[in-house]
Specification:
Order of helices and strands: HHEEEEEEE
Radius of gyration: 20 Å
Strand content: 25-35%
Number of strands: 7
Structural class: alpha+beta
Distance between the termini: 64 Å
Shape: globular
Helix content: 10-25%
Largest sheet: 7 strands, antiparallel
Oligomer: single chain
Length: 137
């Protein structure tokens, strides 16, 4: 018994061993599983005048830095001619979309709710306010 108690004390006292709560671990697992998925991403710098949001594809999630590497598959006309552009973004700049085949992951958006909407025919997003909800029969 004494050996186990000493081991527990060493583990608790070791500041190099990160301790993640089960809920944070589950959240990080969920984020890591977004690889290959499309998400909404804020791609502007913190000091920019306006937010720029795009639909991008997740390439990688780094659990250590908690950053996403994402790919803008359809950059705008003003982008470099090489085409696709990569970004490294913090978790706070990413919003996962609900799964298409799992309605339980979809949120309810009542009138007055602020959302991001897609400009038709683009991957650019803009801030909008819900005016009316679609009725499903």
């Amino acid at each position: 018994m004494e050996g186990n108690e000493q081991k527990k004390k060493r583990m608790k006292a070791d500041p190099d061993v990160p301790r993640l709560s089960p809920s944070l671990r589950n959240h990080l697992d969920h984020l890591a599983n977004l690889k290959g998925e499309q998400v909404a991403a804020r791609v502007t710098q913190e000091d920019a005048d306006k937010d720029e949001w795009f639909i991008v594809k997740v390439i990688h999630f780094d659990r250590e830095t908690r950053e996403f590497e994402v790919l803008d598959e359809e950059p705008g006309d003003d982008e470099e001619p090489a085409g696709q552009r990569k970004y490294k973004l913090p978790m706070s700049h990413i919003i996962p979309f609900p799964k298409r085949n799992d309605p339980s992951t979809a949120q309810d958006f009542p009138p007055g709710k602020h959302v991001l909407a897609v400009y038709p025919g683009t991957t650019a997003l803009y801030k909008a306010t819900v005016v009316n909800t679609r009725k499903v029969f």
